[in-house]
Amino acid sequence: MLINLKGSKWKKMRSQLTPSFTSGKLRTMEHLIDICCNNMSDFLNDNIKSGNCKVFFLHFINNFITFTMFILFSENGFKPYELEMKDFFGKFTLDVIATCAFGVESNSLTDVTGGFASRVSKFATLSITKRLSLYIIILFLPGLARFVPLSFFNMKVIYFLANVIKEAKSYRMSTGQKRNDFLQLLLDSESNPDNKNENKQNEDSLTEPQIVAQSVLFLIAGFETSSTLLTFTCYELAINQEIQIKLREEICSILDRYNGKCTYEAMQEMTFLDMVLGETLRMHPPVAQLERVCTQDYMIPDSNLILQKGTAVQIPVIGLHYDPEYYPDPYKFDPNRFSAEEKASRHHYVYLPFGTGPRNCIGLRFALMSTKRGMVHLLKNFSIELSNRTTVPYIYSKHSMFLKAQNGIWLSFNKLNTS
What we know:
The chain is globular and about 65 Å long. Helix 3 (30-50) packs antiparallel against helix 4, helix 7 (155-175) crosses helix 10 and helix 10 crosses helix 13. A hairpin with a 2-residue loop joins strand 1 (56-61) and strand 2 (64-69). 49% of the residues lie in helices and 10% in strands. It folds into 2 domains: 2-286 and 353-415, CATH 1.10.630.10; 287-352, no CATH class. The strands form 4 sheets. It has a 3-stranded antiparallel beta sheet. A two-stranded antiparallel ribbon has the order 1-2. It is mainly alpha-helical and 419 residues long. It has 16 helices and 9 strands. Keywords: Endoplasmic reticulum, Heme, Iron, Membrane, Metal-binding, Microsome, Monooxygenase, Oxidoreductase, Transmembrane, Transmembrane helix.
């Protein structure tokens, strides 16, 4: 995978994959994402409506049995629908990635049979024995890692995905079918005659194992990044209702100018949405730290400490994001920190939700695009409120390599009167 490569091998692979994430290529996937967004809205609508006819009360009056049905109404006559955000957005994100990366319609939100979503969502699930063995080797026997195959991912899921990708590739090659998705971009890179002629001697064209590996990476990185960002954005909007209202007003006013269509141009105008997502990523980055390796000796300023070439450096993302020197009152959710003026006044490297430099997250633009479109569909149709089941402030889970709430984030969605 790209994240495991170093030096010239990483540079070559990165240059091969980067064209897959240009604005032009991403725009070809917009309609696929919108289909998933519409399915998400339909799912919420169906559950909000069905939730109104499930409460019954039995009472007695003068020896007569009277059945009384109580229907709980909100302002528009519908009962809010409560659900756990990481699970909900995890399924939505898997739908997006399944169709954009693999050409698979997974229907995760409505599939109760344990299909694609059920299997793929366990990619980071390891047995206690396997997890303990990994940590023992890494902490106490690091030299052994060179000879023992290690993985923090569930290999059964990896093999399952590999088969899905190989079958999709075989089907497209035999039928000539093409789709505007990530897998097709990789296949085109593999099969493009110009690429093969140009790279014949230096073997720069993508191989099938490389295509499989990068597709799996696309799912893993995209799943956690997008679902985490969506979860905590809704969490903050539920707590900060005035910001939710302001953001909804921006979304609706811009969509009105584009005849209700969520076009690329409309999304570019939603600057407050960008600010909200930026502040969410500051307070709730997907990962707590990054690792980089020194490529040359470096003396830390104002000290005698030298980091030697080859030294691994752990970068505390959370520490930087909550440093009051750069972010005054850091525990306050304030999207104004990410206005153009505020961003220009800060050092670039104190904001690292996707890393930075040449090894930043290659899929960050896709993650932001799918997240933004998901939020637009949600806020134009639903209001979001905090559930009593959610702990505020939440506690980080100790059993995840990614940042998530220990007891989940439970929120309620209520249908807006958009007539």
